[in-house]
Design brief:
Blueprint lengths: L1 H29 L2 E7 L9 E2 L2 E2 H16 L5 E5 L9 H10 L4 E8 L9 E6 L5 H11 L8 H4 L8 H6 L8 H17 L5 E7 L2 H4 L5 E8 L3 H8 L1 H23 L29 E9 L16 E6 L2 E9 L2 H13 L6 E6 L2 E3 L1 H4 L6
Parallel strand pairs: 1-4, 1-5, 5-8, 6-7
Antiparallel strand pairs: 2-3, 6-8, 9-11, 9-12, 10-11, 12-13
């Protein structure tokens, strides 16, 4: 009887330890940085075809090369929208990323135009600029929906050939555009510095594949296969390795920045005001509260000084699945500028001032137009 009782006790203890181990394993997995890699086009949708090169094949080859290098890292989890030559609807690509609660979504493509001269990389983030070639590019990428069986139902009547339809798109992931821009610039910088490619820069437009993702998302154009020299480079093993390696370094640089809670909206330039004569003179704006945004992350951290380089007077705000962290709170714009400088000295070099009125964030340029005391 005693032996049986001991056996039961041991079994309970082992079960408890096993449960803790499984829980720890799940927590460790949850702590991983999840990257969804999307090889553009596929299957019945070849994408661009030029000079004998197929966009869908090059995109997949680079994605698989990139994924292979990321999978060697213990704290990174890689998810693919496709690993073979198969057709995946645009909405499903976003759905895969959303269900995975991913930290990043990266869609890989190749460019092609009728003129064989253009070459170079481009990285796109969500936006609403419909001028010139930007609209034509978005139209080409979004027209893939016509290959889908139920595109009218899946995209609520969206017409990729209509500029009005493009303009009508609401930016559902606007909160993530800041982080998307940071990643996009890192990617283009690495294409220049690591892969030694020409960069055509960061661009913005309403692209369906990244429109409905609820995390920082970018669409990367590796280059122009319509340019014979660049097409040959992108179709080569060495070229694909260089591009994948540059992308990997950009992703890890972004991850490191997020892990260190350093973030910010690099699209926002520091505002100036003609009324500012000396920084030590109070410049009070009635009904306006200024804060310094020091970070934006999917991680939910306590707004304590030990989490933010010793800074105090911290606050946070959850917008969607993203947490924004702020330093200070004042109606004195000059004081806010001092707080921003303090944050930058602590290492938050991309920090910036935001304005609130009646508890809601407002455009800072509009806030600075209000009457001061």
């Amino acid at each position: 009887m005693q032996t049986k009782r001991n056996y039961i006790i041991v079994s309970i203890v082992l079960t408890f330890i096993t449960s803790l181990t499984c829980l720890s394993s799940l927590q460790a997995q949850d702590d991983k940085f999840v990257v969804v890699l999307d090889a553009g086009h596929g299957g019945k949708d070849p994408g661009a075809i030029s000079n004998g090169y197929k966009e869908k094949k090059i995109a997949l080859d680079v994605v698989l090369e990139l994924g292979k290098t990321l999978e060697t890292l213990d704290d990174v989890k890689v998810i693919y929208t496709r690993k073979k030559d198969r057709f995946i609807e645009l909405w499903k690509r976003a759905d895969i990323a959303n269900k995975a609660d991913a930290d990043l979504f990266i869609s890989i493509h190749c460019n092609s135009v009728t003129n064989s001269k253009p070459y170079g990389t481009e990285t796109w983030v969500l936006g609403e600029n419909n001028a010139g070639r930007n609209f034509e590019f978005a139209k080409r990428e979004n027209e893939v929906i016509f290959l889908e069986d139920n595109y009218e139902e899946n995209y609520a009547g969206f017409d990729p050939t209509s500029p009005e339809s493009e303009i009508a798109l609401t930016i559902e992931q606007e909160v993530y555009v800041e982080q998307s821009v940071i990643l996009a610039r890192k990617i283009e910088d690495n294409f220049i510095g690591k892969a030694k490619r020409k960069s055509r820069g960061l661009k913005q437009h309403s692209l369906l594949v990244i429109r409905n993702t609820y995390m920082p998302s970018v669409l990367v154009e590796l280059g122009f296969i319509s340019n014979k020299r660049e097409g040959a480079f992108l179709n080569s093993k060495s070229g694909q390795h260089k591009m994948a390696n540059a992308l990997k370094d950009a992703i890890l640089s972004y991850k490191k920045e997020i892990d260190q809670n350093v973030g910010g909206n690099i699209l926002v330039s520091e505002e100036t005001n003609d009324n500012v004569l000396q920084e030590n003179i109070p410049l009070i704006y009635e009904d306006i509260t200024f804060k310094v945004q020091i970070a934006a992350s999917s991680r939910n951290l306590e707004p304590k000084s030990y989490n933010f380089m010793g800074l105090s007077e911290l606050s946070k705000e959850k917008v969607g699945q993203l947490y924004k962290y702020f330093y200070g709170s004042t109606s004195d714009y000059n004081k806010a500028k001092q707080l921003q400088e303090e944050a930058r000295i602590k290492g938050y070099t991309t920090s910036f001032i935001v304005a609130y009125k009646d508890g809601k964030q407002v455009d800072i340029s509009e806030a600075l137009k209000t009457t001061t005391n």
